[in-house]
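SAMPLE LOG
Freezer: B-3
Tube label: C17
Construct: single chain, 159 aa
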Amino acid sequence: MPRVLVTGGAGFVGSNYVRALLSGAYPAWREADVTVLDRLTYAGDRANLEPVKERLVFVQGDICDEDLLADLVPGHDVVINFAAESHVDRSIADSSAFVRTNVLPVSITTACARPSAGTKPTATRGNRSSDRAPSRNPRRLDDQLSGDRWSRFHRLPPG
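STRUCTURE (predicted):
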């Protein structure tokens, strides 16, 4: 049975994904064990998960908490990140919260996943229109991203 960690899973987008996943919308994942990590800020609400609460484990916490992620990520087969600051008007007043929540956790989560996963990260699609789209058969990340693109994705050592 696959174990799935969904960060930001109590927000609007994340909770819709979790409800769909646990309601059988993705047949191959019908029996998945799901853990939801959410800080429950202005965007997150446990009530969003009410219809499927019996099928998941909920952890209230911050995706930027390295110790929490070091405990939580190992043992999960997949990490899906929906945790994000989403209000553009708030970013104008103070962009630091957006960098902290939207950028930093990717690095932390990847670092926590590497020792337990036993596999190299793969890219499944470009994140900007200028990025080359990967092939249908994802290759190792360092084969797909080179030079500037590599450093934009992660500061992971190649190999």
